């Protein structure tokens, strides 16, 4: 099936998400749509899938114009979509999820047997290994994704849209997905592959269309160089490097040992995790989303019930204390999702700037808030951190993502810290703000504060880390130096210990991550492939 | 409305208990790393169930044990005109009281052990506890009254009669909530159904027209609920609460202004006929409950079965449940989320309307101000206590009907228990239920959330 | 140290959360829109109520019989029915021009303030809970328990002047606070939904008070009716404007409570915490605020305010505890708080308005025979119309309702 978009424009009010986009997907082709987050990829896909109506432009299927009033029309036209956030009902079985919306019935009653048969057929044909009667919420992410693909195939999709399909996958699962995509192509399906990950795009695409700020900025082939693609994507030569001096680690400040966190359903989300962070160094925690990093940050802050082990900050135990007490011990915390955890949307900028400080003597006297001081603090922070806001009394939810994040960072850095824990500090933030925020974090390090960064973004890890701890299934696969090659981290993120990847002599990649640190001088790390790393460790 | 906010997905390990799912993907690493196994699962301890059970056991100890009536307690099974005779059930108050206490303590101990191991109490144990607590209470309360002898069939048949509007109400609520709309307005639907049935039945002289009017009237209340909460995304609880006030005021006003002054014209509906199935209705205990009912009573059994079948065995049911759990997923598969919700809310009104008709076409032959007196809220409680399941809602409604029937029977028998405490029973039970006795009582995940396309 | 060699220039960020899609104008518009919207809603509700009055009027029904012959008759009969009812309501609520003395002429206004007192207090109880994201449908039960405790202290204890009234006030607040605390504690400890809890506790309170009124300790000596003894003179609120008016110092208590709640919410650390819990519980928790403690605190506070409404009833107007002492003030309080958009002064004025409806409704019923239940109709219509977007709001505002379910209650209030 040949799918064609002709000068598609989509506006939301005054905001133009897509402008004049032309795109052709040939049959049996993997066409990649490459662009940064917020470039308008997902909007375009939603237009294509009938979830949005285009403001202008036409969609053609095999040369004839179609108009989608909803996903049902798109599906009928042979378009299937695998959403970034899976569209699966967690409490339903695979068969129920697949049947939903395209149920076959027999005498008024639901006939799931037909669906089960189709699932088995498809599963067999493409090597999916999916049990139609498994309950979806019990399945691993990779399998859930295959259920999504089955949903599209059952509906006889000829064009599959995959929206950021690898964001939640391990490198290994990603490879498996790429295999499946090639297999689908062989069977004549077309695939529209949305991603911002250059490696995958180059590996699997036949054609690459790059979009930036809602416009197509170029079309190229997978032979194009990585830097060429990156430049097209962001529109200027990018370097994510932060100008930072070498770390000067002091004594060990944060000592996490044997930290175990059990979730509500009894799953060990963190399993006997141990590591240390010294004053004046940044330890970055890397890993695919959902491998315990979130729980690590939450456990340190005291947000987690059922956390055992020990988290000592300058010798004082933090575990078992309330969030208030942990904050009072000098822990600054940047949560991974600012809109749900970091900010109170309807509160003003100045209120949000004292969200965890309002009880401080600076901002309250007895039971009363000192509103003058709170306003003065806000003016200072807005100035210092260059927060773009119409006023300090504007609700923070009216600010852009980058400025919201600056509010969070400004608040957390507005007092002397003993430890900074920052999860995804630049997620969904514009490039200019990223640099600024990174500089602030490094500056905090240079003041001698121990810093723990959690990031699923390897680029950010490389940009900030003095050491890197890799998490997998709630365990530390190893703590390695900042120069560790990408593929080594990738294997560790898929469950290999540092020892296994780098060879047995590797000391600091102990499976349970009994972290070495700057305080761990007996580790010369002779086998490290990266000499720079060795130098840094020593 | 869910008693618990759903855990955001990233809080759960997506691979949790992946080992139970068949057909897991090939191992993540070819060279079979032991460390690459899925996360370990350990028990999570929750003391909620043992604590609640222990409290109830203490109550049982104090009342059914130490305060046991030292006499024979009789439950008449067969009545005069029954098909055949079954010997009466009789127990001694003290014996049954202490037996009850023993069983309750044993189940509590089991719950304690299970909780320590991080496991849930098996369902049979919960049911056992429930049966003995109820029977122990019954023996105690009947035995302590002046006439320690009661007709079982009268007790049960009366309970069913009182439960009928509750059952319709909770099923109506269920249709709304399973598709993601919280329905606090059950009370208003029952009341307006009763009102419409009375007026239309009186004017037309036909109870059947009255029944139809009840359905239409309650559906009108639903329509307002749907327009506000689905179309305009106004908070569903607010709309529900306000609708109840509106209906109460409107029917109260019209009752005083129109119905009362011209009662013979507007407020004298004919009754719906009652059919007793020959022979079958004479079976002891079960006969009157199952085979000697009004039209609405038979309809009740049919509707429960129908809703259950439709919800779990039809295309409509699959879509309804999907829309209540994950509306966006349903939307991406071409299910019209808001249209389906709208229809189901209307349907919920239709069902609740049947319950409303029971008041003026079966129970009493006239409308009075606020005559439903909070039944809608009890129906809501039954819906939650019954875990959003039609059968559960039926059983919970029957339990609540039983409680209120017991109240009137006991005042007749001369009981030491103040009637107000019996009247409180459904509400206390519901609080215990939402506070943890029924454990993970999980409502539809998307209930209460308006659905908007992004 | 530089990481460039290891990190190819791939600046893409992973998995950005959806942009916080709030239009800057939305918040402002709800504010500027709110006053006009409220007025429009009140007018629309009154018009509909008037239609209802007119259509059930005997004279109108009569003229409708020959509507096609003389349609004017019916129109004027309708106008007469509705306008005379509302006129009577106005006379009963604001100013009675037929009064002989100034006192008689302004008596209705004082009645409005009297009736508004429990409405304001209980309304504040609902409003503070809203601000913390809780839907307190339990004002009725809290009011009842507060009234029961206050009444008991009022008739059973003998205390000096001043101290006695103070004890009554404290007892009422404590009673309500206790009933609210049950909700807060259960919600905090078990996650049970407060809507269910409060509904159930209302009925439990009602039955409990009915039970108390069968006990000798609460019964008026020599009476078998469920009525408590009269409160002692020392336990009663003094009259505010002299004996010829029912208006008592409880109204001043309501004003004080409004001032206090306004201070608490906007200017105190506790209020900051409560509002944060209401607007975004997760962020509040991350900021070191105990959400569960917030639930308990706000329900204690809400219950205490509703309990004060009970005090206003027993120590202000009724002078004794009966099962009906709460009337429907606890439920009306919900609509009061909604109309007042759960702001303290908004609630105050909404309470005044609904007090006027109630006070005027009594006069209306006696003067024109219009049933007082019409007041319930008008009240609920007002709240519905306020929530009805087509009246003023545009589609863009609706996008806001997508945000956060934690703030569902407050969201609805805004809507």
Automatic annotation (TrEMBL), chain A:
Q: Which GO terms describe its molecular function?
A: ATP binding; ATP hydrolysis activity
Record-annotated ABC transporter domain positions: 3-238, 254-498
User: Major location, coarse class?
Assistant: membrane
According to UniProt, the name of this protein is ABC transporter
Where are the stretches annotated Disordered?
501-538
InterPro entries registered for this protein in UniProt: AAA+_ATPase (IPR003593), ABC_carbohydrate_import_ATPase (IPR050107), ABC_transporter-like_ATP-bd (IPR003439), ABC_transporter-like_CS (IPR017871), P-loop_NTPase (IPR027417)
* Protein location: Cell membrane
Automatic annotation (TrEMBL), chain B:
Pfam families, alphabetized:
BPD_transp_2 (PF02653)
State if Cytoplasm is listed as a keyword: no
State which residue ranges cross the membrane: 51-69, 89-112, 124-143, 155-174, 181-201, 207-230, 237-259, 295-312, 345-368, 374-400, 421-440
Q: Which UniProt keywords apply?
A: Cell membrane, Membrane, Transmembrane, Transmembrane helix
User: Where's it found, cell-wise?
Assistant: Cell membrane
Determine the domain of life of the protein's source.
Bacteria
Topology in the lipid bilayer is annotated as: Multi-pass membrane protein
| Transmembrane in keyword set | yes
Broad class of the protein's primary localization: membrane
Q: Which GO MF terms does the UniProt record name?
A: transmembrane transporter activity
For region Disordered, the annotated ranges are: 1-21
What do the Gene Ontology cellular component annotations say? plasma membrane
> What name does UniProt use for this protein?
ABC transporter permease
TrEMBL record, chain C:
User: Which Pfam families does the UniProt record give?
Assistant: BPD_transp_2 (PF02653)
Topology of this chain in the membrane: Multi-pass membrane protein
Q: Which GO terms describe its cellular component?
A: plasma membrane
For molecular function, the Gene Ontology terms on record are:
transmembrane transporter activity
Indicate where this protein resides in the cell: Cell membrane
Q: Which domain of life is it from?
A: Bacteria
- Give the start-end ranges of region Disordered: 1-27
> Bias regions of kind Low complexity — which residues?
1-15
Q: Which UniProt keywords apply?
A: Cell membrane, Membrane, Transmembrane, Transmembrane helix
Entry's transmembrane regions: 35-55, 76-95, 115-135, 142-159, 165-186, 195-214, 247-265, 295-315, 321-340, 347-368, 374-392
The identity of this protein, by name, is: ABC transporter permease
């Amino acid at each position: 099936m040949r799918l064609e978009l002709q000068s598609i424009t989509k506006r939301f009010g005054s905001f133009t998400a897509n402008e004049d986009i032309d795109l052709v997907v040939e049959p049996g082709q993997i066409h990649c749509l490459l662009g940064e987050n917020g470039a308008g990829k997902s909007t375009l896909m939603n237009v294509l899938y009938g979830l949005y109506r285009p403001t202008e432009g036409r969609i053609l299927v095999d040369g004839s114009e179609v108009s989608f009033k909803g996903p049902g029309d798109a599906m009928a036209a042979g378009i299937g979509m695998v959403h970034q956030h899976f569209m699966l009902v967690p409490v339903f079985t695979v068969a129920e999820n697949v049947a939903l919306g395209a149920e076959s019935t027999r005498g008024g009653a639901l006939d799931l047997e037909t669906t089960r048969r189709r699932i088995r057929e498809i599963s067999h044909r493409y090597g999916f290994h999916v049990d139609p009667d498994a309950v979806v919420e019990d399945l691993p992410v990779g399998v859930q994704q295959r259920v999504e693909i089955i949903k599209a195939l059952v509906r006889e999709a000829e064009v599959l849209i995959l929206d950021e399909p690898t964001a939640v996958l391990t490198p290994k699962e990603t490879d498996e997905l790429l295999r499946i995509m090639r297999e689908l192509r062989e069977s004549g399906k077309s695939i529209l592959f949305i991603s911002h990950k250059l490696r995958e795009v180059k590996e699997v695409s036949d054609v690459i269309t790059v979009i930036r700020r809602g416009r197509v900025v170029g079309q190229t082939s997978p032979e194009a160089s990585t830097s060429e693609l990156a430049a097209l994507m962001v529109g200027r030569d990018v370097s994510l490097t932060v100008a930072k001096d070498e770390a000067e680690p002091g004594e060990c400040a944060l000592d996490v040992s044997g930290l175990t966190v059990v979730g509500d359903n009894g799953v060990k989300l963190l399993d006997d995790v141990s590591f240390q962070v010294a004053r004046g160094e940044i330890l970055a925690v890397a890993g695919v989303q959902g491998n315990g990093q979130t729980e690590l940050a939450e456990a340190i802050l005291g947000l987690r019930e059922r956390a055992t082990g020990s988290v000592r900050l300058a010798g004082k135990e933090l575990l078992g204390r309330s969030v208030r007490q942990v904050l009072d011990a000098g822990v600054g915390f940047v949560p991974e999702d600012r809109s749900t955890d970091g900010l109170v949307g309807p509160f003003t900028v100045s209120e949000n700037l004292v969200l965890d400080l309002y009880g401080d003597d600076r901002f309250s006297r007895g039971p009363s808030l000192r509103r003058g001081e709170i306003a003065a603090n806000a003016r200072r922070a807005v100035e210092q951190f260059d927060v773009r806001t119409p006023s300090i009394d504007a609700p923070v939810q009216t600010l852009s993502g980058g400025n919201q994040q600056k509010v969070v960072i400004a608040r957390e850095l507005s007092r002397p810290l003993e430890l900074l824990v920052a999860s995804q500090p630049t997620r969904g933030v514009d490039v200019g703000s990223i640099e600024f925020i990174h500089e602030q974090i490094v500056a905090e390090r240079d003041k001698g504060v121990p810093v723990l960064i959690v990031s699923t973004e390897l680029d950010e890890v490389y940009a900030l880390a003095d050491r890197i701890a890799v998490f997998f299934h709630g365990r530390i696969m190893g703590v390695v130096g900042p120069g560790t090659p990408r593929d080594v981290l990738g294997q560790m993120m898929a469950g290999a210990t540092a020892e296994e990847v780098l060879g047995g002599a590797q000391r600091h990649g102990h499976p349970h991550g009994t972290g070495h640190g700057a305080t761990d001088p007996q580790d010369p790390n002779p086998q490290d492939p990266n000499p720079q790393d060795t130098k840094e460790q020593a | 409305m869910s008693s618990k906010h759903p855990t955001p997905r990233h809080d759960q390990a997506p691979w949790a208990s992946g080992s139970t799912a068949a057909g897991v993907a090939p191992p993540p690493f070819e060279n079979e790393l032991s460390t690459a196994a899925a996360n370990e699962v350990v028990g999570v301890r929750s003391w909620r169930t043992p604590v609640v059970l222990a409290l109830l056991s203490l109550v049982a100890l104090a009342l059914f044990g130490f305060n046991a009536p030292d006499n024979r307690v009789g439950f008449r099974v067969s009545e005069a005109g029954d098909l055949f005779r079954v010997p009466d059930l009789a127990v001694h108050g003290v014996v049954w009281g202490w037996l009850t206490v023993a069983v309750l303590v044993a189940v509590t101990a089991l719950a304690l052990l299970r909780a320590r191991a991080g496991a849930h109490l098996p369902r049979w144990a919960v049911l056992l506890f429930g049966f003995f607590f109820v029977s122990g209470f019954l023996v105690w309360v009947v035995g302590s009254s002046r006439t320690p002898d009661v007709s079982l069939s009268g007790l049960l048949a009366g309970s069913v009669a009182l439960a009928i509007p509750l059952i319709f109400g909770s099923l109506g609520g269920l249709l709304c909530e399973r598709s993601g709309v919280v329905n606090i307005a059950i009370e208003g639907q029952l009341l307006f159904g009763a009102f419409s049935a009375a007026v239309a039945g009186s004017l037309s002289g036909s109870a059947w027209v009255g029944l139809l009017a009840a359905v239409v009237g309650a559906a009108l209340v639903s329509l307002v609920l749907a327009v506000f909460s689905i179309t305009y995304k106004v908070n569903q609880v607010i709309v529900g609460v306000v609708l109840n006030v509106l209906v109460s005021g409107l029917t109260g006003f019209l009752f005083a202004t129109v119905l009362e002054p011209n009662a013979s014209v507007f407020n004298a509906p004919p009754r719906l006929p009652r059919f007793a199935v020959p022979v079958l209705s004479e079976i002891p205990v079960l006969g009157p409950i199952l085979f000697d009912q009004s039209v609405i009573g038979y309809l009740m059994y049919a509707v429960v079965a129908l809703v259950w079948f439709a919800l779990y065995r039809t295309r409509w049911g699959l879509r309804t449940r999907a829309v209540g759990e994950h509306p966006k997923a349903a939307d991406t598969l071409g299910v019209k989320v808001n249209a389906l919700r709208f229809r189901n809310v209307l349907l919920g009104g239709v069902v609740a309307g049947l319950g409303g008709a029971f008041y003026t076409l079966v129970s009493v032959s006239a409308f009075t101000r606020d005559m439903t007196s909070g039944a809608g809220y009890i129906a809501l409680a039954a819906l939650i206590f019954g875990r959003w399941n039609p059968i559960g809602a039926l059983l919970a409604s029957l339990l609540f009907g039983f409680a209120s029937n017991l109240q009137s029977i006991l005042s007749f028998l001369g009981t030491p228990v103040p009637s107000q405490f019996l009247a409180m029973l459904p509400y206390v039970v519901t609080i215990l239920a939402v506070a943890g006795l029924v454990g993970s009582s999980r409502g539809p995940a998307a209930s209460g959330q308006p659905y908007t396309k992004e | 140290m530089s990481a460039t060699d290891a990190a190819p220039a791939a600046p893409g960020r992973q998995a950005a959360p959806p942009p916080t899609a709030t239009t800057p104008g939305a918040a402002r518009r709800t504010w500027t829109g709110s006053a006009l919207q409220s007025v429009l809603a009140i007018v629309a509700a009154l018009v509909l109520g008037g239609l209802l009055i007119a259509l059930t009027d005997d004279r109108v029904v009569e003229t409708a019989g020959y509507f096609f012959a003389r349609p004017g008759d019916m129109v004027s009969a309708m106008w007469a029915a509705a306008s005379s009812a509302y006129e009577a309501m106005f006379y009963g609520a604001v100013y009675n021009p037929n009064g002989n003395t100034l006192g008689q002429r302004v008596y209705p206004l004082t009645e409005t303030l009297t009736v508004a007192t429990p409405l304001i207090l209980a309304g504040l109880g609902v409003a503070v809970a809203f601000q913390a994201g809780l839907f307190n449908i339990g004002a009725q039960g809290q009011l009842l328990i507060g009234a029961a405790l206050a009444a008991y202290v009022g008739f059973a204890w003998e205390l000096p002047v001043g101290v006695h009234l103070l004890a009554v006030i404290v007892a009422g607040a404590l009673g309500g606070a206790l009933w609210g605390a049950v909700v807060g504690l259960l919600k905090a400890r078990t996650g049970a939904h407060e809507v269910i809890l409060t509904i159930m506790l209302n009925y439990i309170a009602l039955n409990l008070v009915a039970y108390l009124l069968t006990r000798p300790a609460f019964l008026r000596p020599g009476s078998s009716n469920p009525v408590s003894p009269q409160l002692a003179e020392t336990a009663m609120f003094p009259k505010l404007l002299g004996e010829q008016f029912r208006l008592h110092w409880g109204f001043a208590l309501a004003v004080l409570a409004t001032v206090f709640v306004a201070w608490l919410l906007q200017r105190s650390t506790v209020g900051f915490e409560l509002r944060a819990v209401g607007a975004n519980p997760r962020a509040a928790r991350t900021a070191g605020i105990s959400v569960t403690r917030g639930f308990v605190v706000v329900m204690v506070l809400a219950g205490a305010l509703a309990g004060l409404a009970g005090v206003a009833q027993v120590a202000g107007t009724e002078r004794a505890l009966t099962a009906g002492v709460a009337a429907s003030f606890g439920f009306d309080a919900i609509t009061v708080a909604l109309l007042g958009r759960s702001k303290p002064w908004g609630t105050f004025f909404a309470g005044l308005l609904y007090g006027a409806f109630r006070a005027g409704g009594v006069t209306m019923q006696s003067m024109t025979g219009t049933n007082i239940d019409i007041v319930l109709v008008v009240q609920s219509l007002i709240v519905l119309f306020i929530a009805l977007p087509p009246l003023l709001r545009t589609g863009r505002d609706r996008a806001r309702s997508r945000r956060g379910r934690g703030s569902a209650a407050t969201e609805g209030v805004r809507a």
